[in-house]
Amino acid sequence: MKSRLNILFALVSLPLIGIGQEAPTLAQLAERAILKSHSLANAELDIQSERETRSSIKETYLPRVEANGKFAHLNTEVLVDLPTTTLPILNIQLFDGNERFQSRSNLWISDITASAVLFTGTKAPKLGKALDHKIRAQEIMLEKGRQEIIDQVSTAYDQLALLRQVQLVLEESSRRLDIEKKTAEKAFGYGLITSYELNKIAVAEATLAARQQEYEGKRGLLIRQLHQLTDIPVDSLDAIEHTLHPYSLATNTGGIDNRPEIAALDAAIEANRYKVQAERTHWIPQVQALARVGYYGLTDGSLKTPYTLPVSGQPIHLGANRLQAFPSYMVGVGFRWNLFDGLQGKRAVNKARIEVQKAENERQEAEELLNLNLVKAQTEYELANKQVVTGQTRLNTAQKALDIAQKESRVGLIKPAERIAAETDYQQAALDYYQVVFNQRRAAYRLLMATGDLTLEKLN
């Protein structure tokens, strides 16, 4: 949550007073997307929840104070079968066989109890260490989420630039076709070209119109996507006119040491190791201190006996208006020593060890896959660079061919159909080149992600 507040402060500090009037940069788009991300917000809430759990472990040794109160009405029949006894003087036999007594009373109990854990067998501090490493792993994985958002935003941003380049190519072709159409219509009027050749220009115009409609639809969708990711107004996004250039990276891009997954798994392994240590403490005694002050009262008590007085014959009933014990104090220290728990502690230790092995296996597998992904990303980046060079050469050749075709068309050395073919070849070469540049930039960003170095500072 603190990192999100830092990003928010940075955004407020940016000169974006005219965000609704100026086109945002790629870095600003990425920052806004990171700040808005619901998945990152939930991940940070998960971390906050774990921190609350960590705080509860630290508070294990704080005293607990509770107040209790109870009231009960007792009404019971007591059956007594004891050896017969005769009362002296009264000559009354007691407990002659089974005797039944009727008892009735009101019971009042209240107390305040304070207890404090003095020693947990070292389990609490070790569980705290395990949670510290777990939180560390979650914090590291936030960086992976941020990099994924940066990649998503930069992809949409580059797609906008690609569409912008496509629009420029189409506009240039449209202007040249307008000039060519006027020339062809005059030539057709003089009978110098056929209707077939004139129709070639109409077909080229229709193709351009279709591509223009496709461009507008894709651009509108991309702007909506960026708006959904960043909440930046659509009119600001519509003002973006980013020029597409190849992204150059150093030859030695490093390894996977900066990948957040590796550091997160290392932290997870440490967390599970501390969990093993915590489970091993199941046999260590735990000590607790206890203090209590209470009130115990009995009111309206009565006991009906089956006996009668020898002279009057009145039944013998015993009663108590009030019996009270207050204040009643108790202070002491107790311990619990689990001498044998039915092997449950041993099973818990074994399960914790299995989790350590699983985490180590996941770390090894992740390292192998990330290294393979790095090799793949490096290969794709090198191939993309070669394709940029080839695409540039093809574009230059098509441009020269188009220039020659324009000159020869003006003096009538080639037919309009051949001139249109040169225009089409140039269009396709230009569109292919910008697509190759877009692919090269994506390959560069994937390589940065493969090394864990895709940060806001690396955006280009």
UniProtKB/TrEMBL annotation:
It holds the Pfam family OEP. InterPro entries: OMP_efflux, TolC-like. Keywords: Cell outer membrane, Coiled coil, Membrane, Transmembrane, Transmembrane beta strand, Transport. It is found in: Cell outer membrane. Residues 349-376 form a coiled coil. Belongs to the outer membrane factor (OMF) (TC 1.B.17) family. This is Membrane protein. It comes from Parapedobacter defluvii. The lineage of its organism: Bacteria, Pseudomonadati, Bacteroidota, Sphingobacteriia, Sphingobacteriales.
